[in-house]
DNA sequence: TAGTTTAGGTCAAACGTTTGACCAATATAC
DNA sequence: GTATATTGGTCAAACGTTTGACCTAAACTA
């Protein structure tokens, strides 16, 4: 059995006053003589009194706790986002109750209920990749529990969100490739049906259009293709390619693999840009240029939006399409002549 | 203002019974007719009644919440550990309240107090690297709050812990290098004053001893050395080395860098083993052999120990020196003749 | 002097839930 | 027909805290 901690009533009893007086002495609500106040405070200190937030929560109908749902912990992007969130919430005196969904919507629904049951003051969630149900999110809003979506959002739900600007991110990468002289730029696409895949592809196309480069269908490859490396190799062998933009850093490494097998030097003959700025990008040889999505800032912004909404439920809808940062490393070099 | 959720009293009032009856109908404490029971249950369902855990916590002096302190989220090791912990605690119906210490002991002390204030039922903590104070940990124990240390432990505190067997991990790596024919094995040491650094070094020495290889002081390098790569290169150039074991995967990459600059082939002329099994190990070229510390299992075991202690505070001290797993990849090859 | 203010408290309700003690009516035992 | 057990409930306390309403005595006002 856990030890009972000293309560306001304990102090009241030993000092022959009422709990009310103790409460007011400790919280400064007046109505207590200087003498008693000091007496109470010193006894409280001596007994190591710490207010019980549970009792306060029950009374005030708030828990100073924020619920968090993320797909998984082990993805670097989410870890960074989590850090960003934590940095804001801890400073504001909130605690973090964390659940994972493992990209499974049923798990996500369960987590939402767990958090609502726990009476969190607000929820920050990254909804799972494949989502077709929204009742649970609607339930959160019907409950007047502020909700902020991060990284992914849904048009069905009108609530603040922060996502990354995939279009601009992709555009900036391909634009850079063009500026350093690439004219034959390959793109490796992400998983089907994901808005990120679509938006990055659109950014790619827009950059080509800006530089008046005609789109070459042969250079658009599917990342999910089982013999992707072979496909890439055939493009490289035919000398169709002088630059490449991949949906992710990991797909960019497939390009590395193909180039290495053909002993095509990067960046000598081929400039490559990935996406996400995984830590590995700086360790691989050559270090990989990539698009940083600023996950920390995403977390910070999402957390701020949530606090804003907690403090003022009637606040105007805050949404943000976060700027990305193009990080140029060794894998890109200006083409000579 | 957040909406008031329907309480047991609401149900009691509309049904003209007392809260006690409702409570017993819902929790099955008998003393309620079948007819009323069904009536109550159906109304509860209709109103979407969900018990308020705050009230229960106040009464039962337990929160069904476990506090967690980790140095940082963005380290892959801790993410995996976190996953392991979460997998156990969520199944057991506990929630996770998470704090970070950023390897700063003062932050750690603050976090401990936050968690104690929140009345968590137990705490799992990875104490910060440099620690010289233990009052806060002692405070946890004085409070009868079960505490489990993971990844790092302290001899000053008698509480369950789970750590990784660095000695055996290092031993297995160097033993493997010997078995594939290496006789001139370099070691790159970790940060000073860390027990992990010491233990891995001891494992290295023990493996050499087993294979009757004399220790060559020239091959022991400090990872913190600013011109580490140059030092490595000079060893390689002099042909003093045919194998290498590094304190971490990242230090192993420094060996890669040196070898690459001298165009010494890995694993053709040099076998390399790192430590930690960072995800990057499988993407680097050649893929890196390494020692996996099983962080997920560490989390699982730590969480189980905590639950055991929560359920039986008088349980015998559980501690574990977790086995590591040697993962052999391309960076190791048997030396020919 | 009578009336009013002020300082320094106390009292009780409220938050939502559980649970031991109690009670009345009915059913059973002998 | 009386004693006892069972059924189906109610009551009130408890968890720790806050807070508006109330109270009393002393001090001030006119």
Automatic annotation (TrEMBL), chains A, B:
<feature type="domain" description="HTH lacI-type">
    <location>
        <begin position="6"/>
        <end position="60"/>
    </location>
</feature>
<dbReference type="GO" id="GO:0000976">
    <property type="term" value="F:transcription cis-regulatory region binding"/>
</dbReference>
<dbReference type="InterPro" id="IPR046335">
    <property type="entry name" value="LacI/GalR-like_sensor"/>
</dbReference>
<keyword id="KW-0238">DNA-binding</keyword>
<dbReference type="Pfam" id="PF00356">
    <property type="entry name" value="LacI"/>
</dbReference>
<dbReference type="InterPro" id="IPR010982">
    <property type="entry name" value="Lambda_DNA-bd_dom_sf"/>
</dbReference>
<dbReference type="InterPro" id="IPR000843">
    <property type="entry name" value="HTH_LacI"/>
</dbReference>
<keyword id="KW-0805">Transcription regulation</keyword>
<protein>
    <submittedName>
        <fullName>LacI family transcriptional regulator</fullName>
    </submittedName>
</protein>
<dbReference type="GO" id="GO:0003700">
    <property type="term" value="F:DNA-binding transcription factor activity"/>
</dbReference>
<dbReference type="InterPro" id="IPR028082">
    <property type="entry name" value="Peripla_BP_I"/>
</dbReference>
<keyword id="KW-0804">Transcription</keyword>
<dbReference type="Pfam" id="PF13377">
    <property type="entry name" value="Peripla_BP_3"/>
</dbReference>
